[in-house]
User: Which sequence fits this backbone?
């Protein structure tokens, strides 16, 4: 137990340092952005037909962050706000706190990623086992090739292909954000709408990611099958069903870390799928904010995405130390 | 003494000697026809990237009567929203993609190998420092970083693109080279060479580099494809302004011109996507071949 | 009726079954066709005996050991011959559930200490229970008791070991756990593959005395496969020497070691350095042991390295694979000049 806590502490410290470095990095990046965001906002209002005086007032009131003072004091402000989980206010959606926007988008992305990852994990693992058991024949080689191929192509290929063919040719599902006219909450039409909007992105996500799981599971199974203890168990007359369980559990072990890690990366990695399907998650938010020059939103999204990766790394390592007895009982050697 | 009867059983393993690399590669490629196909595909891409643009005039002809047309004899892959031939676009667009990827790959190799070798060789404090830096670079999610960077600096030219991709993308190679260096140290190479009084530079060039070359080569091949996909992704999303045509631009324009909604001009959208698919296929097969050259397996059967 | 090894009665003591290996051939599929790793081997294990099977790597001894459980791994297979075990019949013809029950239930196999023969993710105790479940053991408590007895007879605390994972045990401990698992279901034929390799000298001596003790206490027939003649000298009643897939010499240990007849056996013994006397007196055998692909297909497999052949070759040495002949009661040698000598004396 002590060892575990020590590991946890170590990870948390490293994680916090990482997060701090990333926030500083983001801060520096923002300050390097070309153009005065305030000016941009002002001009945008003008082009919308607002009078110059009114525009100026509006910008001052609703914007909130006007860059002034030394870099150091700005940095201090920035960190202070972050500790209060205040990511600033959005430029494009006047006055709305970025934190709110981010939280809103986050739940969509998390839903998508969880569903998609679960699906791809299951498909990938099952096919990976088949590929391992049939590796001498055609089925195995075809599956391996398929896995490598799907794993290698970038996400947008799958996203675009699915979007085009299924939306154009088979008008079964809809794209875009959940219909704003419906009452949110646990009622039939709303849930149905969620499902119909989320199914395609989740499937696209699953299809573009199961390749990795397939390949990893296959190599894991092949490796375990070659382990001495499998032969030893057979020589002791252990039942085939029990041997199968030995193989399955031992082979799945390394997959769990892969799973945990990929969950972290996918918060930022579903970018293309969200964009292609017009699904308002974190990725879409990031892209939109870039297009709108909404720097506060963009940095908020970027920060969150990176923090998610750091947290996932920590979780993966801790998970592994819990699941693998070899790591768990460090120091209790013979 | 009479001759002893021996059955002829050739060696079960083809050893990958440093000097015989190309010969080994050829043997391995010949063994499975699929690998040959892979190598051929990759070669084709490289060729079209280098030679392709010379086959077409600088300003590709447009045809206002054939906007977003489907495949035909004159235009095997259809036309784009201005009536330009898609095949021409594909081939001329591949040069940008290739140049940027090569530039990025060079940077990746220099930085990554440098970090990895130094780290693995010196160990101790330098190792920790370098690895913390590498971890940082690895943890920041690559594509979102590129997106954010695109707001600070518009790195649209092939060289600039390559620079940015290379500087953000060397982390994996550094780790790989470091672990290879460490394991080579374990094997006593380095100790032995030091004991013989070899100067560090010779140890690195004569002992270490040739042995980590396989790792570098594999990472390089995969890195190049990742770079290509990242660039295409960036242009597809429209975050960077473009002057010249490339695959990402094709996808972007196809989408904004409504191909995904209406299905007209499918060739325009699909051509770069299929090109990516084929390139991936080629690389997968080639990597399989390289893997066998570097890690020859005992052939059981 | 379930197959079970019959324990024989020798001098009123219950001992393990008799094993008769006849003309056994095991071949492996390679790029150059099917090549034999074990070729026409005849070997008898008397009830209650400990036999040492000696050979260099590649001699086929491990393959032979696996064949006793009909467990030769792909791409190898038994292509000819029979292995009769009292109470089980011909192991080569067993398959499916019967074969599985025989493994562990009647024949115990012990791996090298160096190999990880236990599931790294499960405790020893859990794997013991898995073993019981696979062999329809209904009384789990009795099984654990039997395991505890065996472990303490070997100097291990069951409490500690049963709750441990493989990586928490030393090499010697793992070896003993392996022996326990092989015998806990009351098998009476014990096969040990290189029991002393990868152990330090003290553990080696320990294990050998454990093997002797367990063999006597439980009335077993034991086969010890090793490359180390010292082990055989220490523990075995009879020794069988393998080379290139063939049995070149067998006989009572003391006689064979004192007066080896086959040139290979002589070479092996001459190669052992002694504690006293001239260190130069130890002479290694010239050349290297053959691999699957380099075993000669005609004539004596040993002749390339044979001192006798080099000095005075017989024409049969090049053309015929020498068959084992009884040169003294209980002693068999497969060598043309030796056979010729014996025939002359008759």
Assistant:
């Amino acid at each position: 137990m002590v060892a575990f806590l020590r590991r946890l502490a170590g990870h948390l410290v490293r994680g916090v340092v990482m997060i701090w470095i990333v926030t500083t990095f983001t801060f520096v990046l923002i300050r390097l952005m070309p153009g005065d965001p305030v000016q941009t906002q002002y001009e945008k209002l003008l082009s919308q037909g607002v009078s110059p005086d009114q525009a100026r007032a509006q910008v001052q009131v609703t914007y909130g962050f006007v860059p002034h003072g030394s870099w150091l004091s700005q940095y201090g402000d920035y960190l202070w706000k972050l500790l209060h989980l205040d990511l600033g206010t959005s430029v494009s959606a006047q006055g709305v706190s970025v934190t709110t926007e981010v939280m809103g988008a986050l739940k969509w992305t998390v839903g998508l990623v969880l569903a998609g990852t679960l699906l791809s994990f299951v498909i990938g693992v099952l096919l990976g086992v088949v590929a391992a058991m049939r590796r001498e024949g055609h089925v195995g080689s075809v599956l391996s090739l398929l896995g490598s191929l799907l794993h290698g192509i970038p996400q947008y290929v799958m996203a675009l292909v699915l979007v085009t063919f299924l939306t154009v040719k088979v008008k079964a599902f809809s794209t875009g954000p959940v219909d704003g006219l419906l009452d949110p909450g646990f009622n039939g039409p709303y849930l149905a709408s969620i499902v119909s909007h989320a199914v395609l992105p989740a499937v696209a996500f699953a299809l573009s990611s199961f390749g990795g799981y397939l390949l990893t599971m296959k190599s894991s199974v092949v490796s375990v099958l070659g382990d001495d203890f499998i032969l030893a168990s057979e020589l002791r007359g252990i039942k085939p069903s029990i041997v199968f369980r030995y193989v399955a559990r031992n082979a799945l072990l390394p997959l769990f870390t892969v799973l945990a890690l990929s969950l972290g990366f996918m918060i930022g990695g579903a970018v293309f799928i969200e964009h292609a399907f017009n699904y308002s998650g974190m990725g879409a938010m990031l892209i939109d904010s870039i297009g709108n020059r909404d720097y506060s939103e963009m940095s908020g999204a970027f920060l969150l995405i990176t923090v998610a990766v750091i947290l996932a790394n920590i979780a993966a390592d801790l998970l592994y130390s819990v699941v693998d007895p070899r790591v768990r009982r460090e120091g209790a050697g013979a | 003494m009479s001759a002893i009867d021996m059955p002829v059983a050739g060696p079960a393993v083809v050893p990958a000697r440093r000097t015989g690399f190309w010969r080994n590669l050829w043997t391995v490629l010949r063994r499975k026809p699929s690998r040959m196909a892979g190598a051929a595909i990759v070669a084709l891409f490289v060729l079209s990237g280098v030679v392709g643009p010379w086959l077409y005039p600088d300003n590709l002809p447009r045809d206002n009567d054939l906007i977003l047309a489907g495949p035909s004899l004159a235009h095997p892959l259809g036309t784009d929203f201005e009536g330009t031939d898609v095949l021409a676009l594909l081939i001329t667009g591949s040069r940008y993609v290739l140049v940027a990827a090569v530039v990025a790959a060079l940077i990746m190799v220099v930085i990554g190998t440098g970090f990895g070798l130094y780290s693995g060789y010196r160990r101790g404090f330098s190792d920790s420092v370098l690895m913390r830096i590498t971890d940082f670079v690895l943890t920041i999610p690559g594509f979102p970083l590129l997106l954010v960077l695109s707001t600070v600096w518009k790195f649209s030219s092939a060289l600039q693109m390559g620079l940015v991709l290379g500087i953000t993308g060397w982390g994996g190679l550094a780790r790989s080279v470091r672990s290879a260096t460490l394991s080579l140290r374990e094997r006593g190479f380095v100790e032995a060479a030091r004991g013989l009084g070899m100067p560090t530079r010779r140890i690195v060039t004569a002992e270490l580099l040739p042995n980590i070359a396989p790792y570098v080569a594999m990472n390089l091949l995969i890195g190049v494809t990742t770079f290509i996909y990242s660039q295409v992704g960036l242009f597809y999303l429209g975050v960077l302004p473009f002057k010249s045509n490339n695959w990402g631009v094709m996808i972007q324009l196809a989408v904004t011109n409504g191909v995904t909604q209406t299905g007209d001009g499918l060739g325009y959208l699909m051509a770069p996507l299929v090109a990516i698919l084929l390139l991936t296929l080629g690389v997968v097969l080639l990597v399989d071949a390289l893997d066998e050259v570097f890690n020859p397996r005992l052939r059981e059967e | 009726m379930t197959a079970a090894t019959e324990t024989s009665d020798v001098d009123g003591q219950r001992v393990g079954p008799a094993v008769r290996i006849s003309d056994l051939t095991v071949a492996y599929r390679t790029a150059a066709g099917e090549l034999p790793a074990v070729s026409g081997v005849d070997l008898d294990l008397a009830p209650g005996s400990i036999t040492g099977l000696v050979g260099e790597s590649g001699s086929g001894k491990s393959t032979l050991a696996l064949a006793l459980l009909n467990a030769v791994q792909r791409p190898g297979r038994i292509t000819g011959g029979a292995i009769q075990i009292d109470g089980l019949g011909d192991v080569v013809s067993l398959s499916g559930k019967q074969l599985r029950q025989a493994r562990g239930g009647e024949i115990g196999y012990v791996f090298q200490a160096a190999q990880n023969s236990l599931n790294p993710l499960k405790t020893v105790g859990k794997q013991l229970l898995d073993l019981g479940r696979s062999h329809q053991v209904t009384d789990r408590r009795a099984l654990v008791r039997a395991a505890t007895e065996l472990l303490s007879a070997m100097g291990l605390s069951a409490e500690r070991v049963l709750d441990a994972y493989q990586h928490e045990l030393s090499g010697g401990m793992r070896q003993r756990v392996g022996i326990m698992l092989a015998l806990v279901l009351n098998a009476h034929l014990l096969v040990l593959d290189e029991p002393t390799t990868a152990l330090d000298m003290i553990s080696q001596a320990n294990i050998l005395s454990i093997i002797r003790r367990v063999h006597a206490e439980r009335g077993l027939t034991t086969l010890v496969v090793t490359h180390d003649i010292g082990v055989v000298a220490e523990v075995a009643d009879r020794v069988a020497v393998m080379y290139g897939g063939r049995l070149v010499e067998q006989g009572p240990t003391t006689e064979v070691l004192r007066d080896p007849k086959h040139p290979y056996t002589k070479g092996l013994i001459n190669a052992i350095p002694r504690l006293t006397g001239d260190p130069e007196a130890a002479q290694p055998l010239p050349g290297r042991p053959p691999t699957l692909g380099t075993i000669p297909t005609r004539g004596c497999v040993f002749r390339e390295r044979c001192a006798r052949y080099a000095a005075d070759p017989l024409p049969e040495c090049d053309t015929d694979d020498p068959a084992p002949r009884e040169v003294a009661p209980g002693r068999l040698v497969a060598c043309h000049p030796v056979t010729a000598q014996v025939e002359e004396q008759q």
About this structure: Residues 201-218 of chain C form the longest helix (18 residues). The mean pLDDT of chain C is 87.
